[in-house]
Each structure stands twice: as C-alpha cells, then as structure tokens.
Amino acid sequence: MNSEFDLLIVGAGAGGIGAAHAAQKEGISYCVLEASHRVGGRGLTEALAPGIPWDLGCHWLHSGSINPLAAIADQHGIHYEKSDSSRAFYMKGSRLPEAQQQSFSNYMADQWQIVQQSAASGEDRALAELINYDSPWAPYYCYWQSLMTSDDVDQFSALDLVNYQDTDENWPIREGYGELLTRHAKGLTIELNTRAEKIDWSGNSVRVTTNRGTLQSKRVVVTVSTGVLGARDIEFTPELPLPTQEAITALPLGCYNNFAMLYDEPWPFDSDTPGRIDYSNGDDVNFAFKLKCSGWPYIYCAVAGRQARWLERQPIAESEHLMMSALVDIFGTDFKKKIVRFKASAWGDDPLVKGAYSASRPGQSHQRSILAQPIAEKLCLAGEAASEQAFCTAHGAWQSGRDAVSKLLNPVS
User: Fold this and answer.
1) What's the whole-model pTM score?
2) For the chain, which domains are there?
3) Sequence-ordered list of residues with C-beta below 8 angstroms from that of 22, at least 6 positions apart, any chain
4) Could you give the CA distance from residue 233 to residue 222 in angstroms, rounded to a whole number?
5) Helices (H), strands (E): how many in the chain?
6) I want to staple 39 with a disulfide (CB 3.0 to 4.6 A). Which of 17, 185, 363, 403 is the partner?
7) Which residues lie below 8 Å from residue 189, measured CB to CB, with a gap of 6+?
8) What's the CA gap between 328 and 323, in Å, rounded?
9) SS3 of 138, please?
10) DSSP of 241-295
11) What is the pLDDT along the chain (413 residues), one digit of tens a residue?
C-alpha cells in the first residue's frame, strides 16, 4: 500500500464511494480506507435463502426520479421496482373501507400542512409538538414518521422533514442496495480491513494512522457515521472545531432495523390482497408490511426509534412474535405455517456504525450544513448526516462525498 496520496477517504460506504468516484474523475491520487471486510457501509445485502437477496440496511431508491443512483443502477444492470403496489389499511385485523382509508390520507395531509406552516414561521420544533393526538390515526402516524429519520417524533426536528427533497417515489432494488454499491465500487482504490484510528491535520499535510500503518495526504474526506464520530473512535489532532463537534452531537444516529419473513408459496394470500399493508392495533403496535418485495417471496417490515432499540436487546423471537401476531390478526392463525424463515438486522450493535441514520435534534436542523463545511481546506466530513436535502439516504451520502471532494479541491476564498 502506498503511503502518500492527494486525497484519503475514510469509509467505503455510499459517501466514500461517491468521494472516490469524484477523486477518480479529477485525476488525483486517492485511497479509500475501510475498517470492514466489505464495501457498502449501511448498504448490505445478504441471501435470505439461496438466490433471494435481502437488504439489511438501505433498501429503497428514495425520490427515485431525481436519485442519481438510479442511473448508476441502470449502468450496472441493477433492477428496481417503480410502480407502487396496491395498498390497504388494517385496523385491529379488519380491512378498513375506502372512506376510512381516505380519512387516514386526509389526516396525513393535514399533518403535513401543519408541519409546513410551522417551518414557514421559522420554527424548528420537535414533530411531536405538532401532532393531533386526538385522532385514531396518530399512533400509526408516529410510527410512520419514525421511519423517516430512524428516531421517535419527540427526538427529531420537524423542519428537517420540510428540508428533505421528497418526490414520494421509493423504488426497492431487486438485487439489493448492497449489491448496487458493491458493483459501483469495483475498480476503485480501496483498502479493506484498514481502520483509521488517528487523523493528525495539524501540519501542512494530513497524517492518518491506521491499524496497518500511517498514510499521508494533502486532504482527507471522512465519511464515517456520526455514531462513530460521536463515540470518538477516531482521534483528531487537533480536535475538530467546536462548531463541528456540536454538529456531530446534534445529529446522532437513531435506530432502524429491517425484518424479513420468507414464505414458501408463490403468493400465499387471496387474489385481492394488496401488495402493501398498513397495520395498527389502535395503540402501540403499528407496522407497514410489503408482501412481495421486488418479486421475491418474503414480507418486508421495518421498525425504528425506541421500539427498534428495545427489540435489538431482546431475543429475535420477540420481534417475530410481534409481527406474526399482527399478520395472524390480518390473515388468520394458519398464516403462521406459511412463514419458513424470519430475519432481522441490528444496526445498533454494529461497532462500525453504532446506529442507523442521523436524526436532527429539535432546533438543530441547521447543523447538517455546518457538519459539511470544510476544515482548514484539508479536512471535510461527509455522509448522509451532512446532506440537507437527502439525509438518511444512500444517495444523500453519495452526493455528500462527491461534494466534499469538490469543496476541498476548489476552496472558496
């Protein structure tokens, strides 16, 4: 491994891969240092069964029509599902009639208007302060919104939601998001199993000490999560500027985990069963199920926030029990026999991530732009947390990595 580069990139997730492609395009020497044995970061695809890919992390091409990774997926022969499946709401096991489902849609629209009005007034409040809890739809709304930032509604800024550029097009990737990132990383200069331990930016150049030796470069882009940065797993000399430290603290990772329930029949449901189901018991049990992800025979579900943290600490049987109870409530007791495998991710336990995605604390949405500001024209932090309009997404991290390289190579005087 060479020891001197124009640019070092710490982390080979979507942000690091984006930064590497930008460096390659600029024709400068670079190297990506990745602590893990693989690329992709929070984009990880495993086999749920032979020939059936399942995403433990990133799963959707969010805002698909404006997502730059959609075109990259096309280049690599990766497929994604554009059309939205049919959808229905089940309350306590009963499929709601169209009028009640429209009532739910109206509630969601009203809540969004309240959030936008709050943002227009210049307020940066917790989403929890803006919710109409008298509505029977409130419990499911809180669950759904927790999926947006991987934390609970009292823990994140409503203004963040307004800043997010959302086209409401969420396209699942058939081969898996991890597979997309793996293919996109081919040909890049990446050193795996190379953990950055210290970054000394006190001199004219930057020295990065790893478990495999010390490297030197003119500039460094750090794309690790705010969970890793907040835990001080990397020692900076001198310490990062106070505004940057405050931004890291203001953008902690929430918890968000994916669940998969493999079934042994092509379609073990009635012909009129919708492809997507919103389920609520009217209180604390709320799930969004996708019954056939990209044509694969498994049910997809996700849980975020405190519930996800709690489930991570329990035996996996607890998660299976909760979700199977909801599905049995919908489809009947015999449905249990159709599920042959249950799997769950556990991002809070991953020592190289320490959580899922960044949740901007109430009053702190402005910190994303501060996190992304270059330091001394030779150090820049990047990743989904540094994206103002696409946080919590792989494409936001990817673009942030590219932007960081541009900022360092073209400093504003």
Assistant:
1) 0.96
2) 4-43+69-79+173-252+361-409 (3.50.50.60), 80-172+254-349 (3.90.660.10)
3) 401, 402, 405, 406
4) 12
5) 12, 19
6) 185
7) 20, 30, 31, 32
8) 9
9) helix
10) PHHHHHHHHHS-B--EEEEEEEESSS--S-TT--SEEEEE-SSS-EEEEESSGGG
11) 678 999 999 999 999 999 999 999 999 999 999 999 999 999 999 999 999 999 999 999 999 999 999 999 999 999 999 876 789 999 988 999 999 999 999 999 999 999 999 999 999 999 999 999 999 999 999 999 999 999 999 999 999 999 999 999 999 999 999 999 999 999 999 999 999 999 999 999 999 999 999 999 999 999 999 999 999 999 999 999 999 999 999 999 999 999 999 998 788 888 888 999 999 999 999 999 999 888 899 999 999 999 999 999 999 999 999 999 999 999 999 999 999 999 999 999 999 999 999 999 999 999 999 999 999 999 999 999 999 999 999 999 999 999 999 999 998 76
Reading the block at residue 5, the tokens are 């580069």
What are the CB-based long-range contacts (under 8 Å, 24+) for 69-78?
A: 69/14, 69/180, 69/184, 69/394, 69/395, 69/398, 70/171, 72/180, 72/184, 73/173, 73/180, 76/180, 76/183, 76/184, 78/173, 78/174, 78/175, 78/179, 78/180, 78/183
Q: Report helix angle 394-409 to 14-26, nearest 10.
A: 40
- 3-state secondary structure at position 53: strand
Tell me how far apart the alpha carbons of residues 201 and 122 are, in angstroms, rounded to a whole number. Answer: 37
Q: Which of 144, 147, 170, 149 is nearest to 159 (CA)?
A: 149
